[in-house]
Backbone:
């Protein structure tokens, strides 16, 4: 079965999205899923939304920024930078694009076998209370997410930081090295695939994951992209300069 590229938190960064899609195709990915936050922060919401719609995506989830862009929520919990950017974003999108975002689900399941049970659960924030957008930072939150999902593998985004957690009966929940996670019989994994368009783990390269269903391996990829162009566009459209600066340092 074909490899699956798992993208999250694209955040209207066209240059990062294009670089990730090139990398994913070069790695043999034929299937795509998106864990939400297509828009917000970056200068190319319309282009990124349309790129996503033209991909053969099996799943596209709603992110908290998408929800505000679509008018489903107001940016009450957003900081000033995020709120400024998302209200600008809302004005860039056409009503038909708001409607498309508004119709995206909060959760999805994926079966890696032809007609098998759900073995991967996907969420933007967490399968536990996904509409409340909780942040999944540590092993305790990962265990709650895995229990809510009831599947051996949970893939999330939202924090913009790559991370992986293993939950098993003997050792409970613990953090593991996220670079390459192999499925282990009797263990469950929760993996944060990081952010395509605005990484915040100190590595400014775009992040996404490749899921190989046959080998049972999730590999985190970091991809160089044209950061300078993405930064210039943010400044050119008049969005806060801090949003351009942070792309250069991955924070
Ligand atoms: Zn995000």
Residues:
């Amino acid at each position: 079965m074909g490899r699956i590229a798992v993208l999250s938190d694209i955040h209207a960064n066209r240059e990062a999205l294009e670089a990730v899609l090139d990398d994913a195709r070069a790695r043999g990915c034929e299937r795509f899923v998106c864990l939400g936050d297509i828009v917000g922060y970056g200068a190319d919401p319309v282009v990124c939304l349309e790129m996503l719609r033209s991909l053969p995506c099996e799943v596209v989830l709603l992110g908290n920024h998408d929800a505000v862009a679509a008018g489903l929520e107001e940016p009450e919990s957003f900081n000033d930078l995020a709120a400024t950017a998302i209200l600008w974003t809302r004005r860039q999108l056409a009503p038909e694009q708001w409607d498309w975002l508004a119709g995206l689900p909060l959760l999805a399941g994926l079966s890696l076998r032809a007609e098998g049970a759900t073995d991967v659960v996907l969420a933007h924030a967490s399968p536990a209370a996904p509409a409340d957008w909780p942040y999944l930072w540590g092993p305790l939150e990962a265990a709650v997410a895995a229990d809510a999902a009831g599947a051996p593998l949970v893939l999330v985004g939202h924090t913009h930081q790559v991370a992986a957690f293993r939950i098993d009966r003997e050792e409970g929940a613990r953090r593991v090295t996220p670079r390459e996670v192999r499925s282990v019989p009797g263990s469950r994994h929760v993996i944060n695939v990081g952010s395509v368009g605005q990484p915040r783990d100190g590595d400014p390269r775009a992040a996404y994951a490749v899921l190989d269903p046959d080998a049972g391996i999730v590999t985190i990829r970091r991809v160089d992209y044209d950061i300078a162009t993405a930064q210039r566009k943010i400044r050119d459209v008049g969005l806060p300069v801090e949003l351009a600066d942070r792309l250069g340092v991955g924070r």
The longest strand covers residues 206-212. The pocket of zinc ion is lined by residues 9, 11, 37, 63, 65, 158, 160 (CB under 6 Å). The two ends are 36 Å apart (CA to CA). Residues 14-26 form the longest helix (13 residues).
